Design the sequence.
C-alpha cells in the first residue's frame, strides 16, 4: 500500500477517524478525571455522525468545535456540582478562619507564634504596623508560605498561655 493510498484511505474514512479521536479523548478523561476532555469526546462523536452521512470535512470540524464548546460551557458546571469535584484542603488550608492565641508577640519587625488547636505556628500580622501582644486572640486570614497571616479577633486575652 503506497503513501497516497494510505492518505486516501484515511481521508475517506472520517467516521473512523472521529471515533478514534473520541476514544482518545475518553481515555485521556479516564486517566485525568478532570472534566476537561470529555466534552471534546462528545464533539468527536457528533462529527463522526455527520461524517457517516457524508458531510464535508469542514462541516465535521465546525460541528466538532461547536458541540465541544457548547457541552463545555453549558454542562461542565452542572457536572462539577453533581460529581462534587472539589479541591481538598491541606492541613494548613484548614487553619484559615480558625481562632488562636498569640504565644510570642508579633510586630512589624519580627514574626511571632500563635497556638491553634494545641499546636504552635509561626505567624505575622496582616497589618504589619500592628503589634499583637502575648495572649491576644487572633483569627487566621490566609497562609503565606509556612507562616500564618493573622488579624485580631475579639478584644479578649487568654492569661494561661
Sequence:
Amino acid at each position: 500500500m503506497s503513501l497516497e493510498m494510505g492518505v486516501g484511505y484515511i481521508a475517506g474514512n472520517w467516521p473512523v477517524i472521529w471515533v478514534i479521536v473520541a476514544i482518545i479523548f475518553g481515555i485521556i478523561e479516564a486517566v485525568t478525571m478532570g472534566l476537561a476532555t470529555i466534552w471534546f469526546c462528545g464533539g468527536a462523536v457528533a462529527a463522526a455522525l455527520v461524517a457517516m452521512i457524508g458531510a464535508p470535512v469542514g462541516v465535521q470540524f465546525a460541528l466538532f468545535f461547536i458541540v465541544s464548546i457548547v457541552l463545555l460551557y453549558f454542562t461542565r458546571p452542572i457536572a462539577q456540582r453533581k460529581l462534587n469535584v472539589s479541591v481538598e484542603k491541606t492541613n494548613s488550608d484548614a487553619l484559615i478562619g480558625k481562632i488562636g492565641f498569640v504565644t510570642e508577640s508579633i510586630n512589624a519587625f519580627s514574626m511571632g507564634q500563635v497556638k491553634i488547636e494545641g499546636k504552635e505556628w509561626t505567624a505575622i500580622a496582616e497589618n504589619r504596623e500592628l503589634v499583637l501582644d502575648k495572649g491576644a486572640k487572633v483569627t487566621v486570614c490566609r497562609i503565606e508560605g509556612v507562616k500564618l497571616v493573622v488579624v485580631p479577633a475579639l478584644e479578649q486575652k487568654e492569661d494561661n498561655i
Observations:
- The mean pLDDT is 84.
- The first helix runs from residue 3 to 11.
- Residues 87 and 93 are 11 Å apart (CA to CA).
- Residues 93-156 form a domain with the OB fold (Dihydrolipoamide Acetyltransferase, E2P) fold (CATH 2.40.50.140).
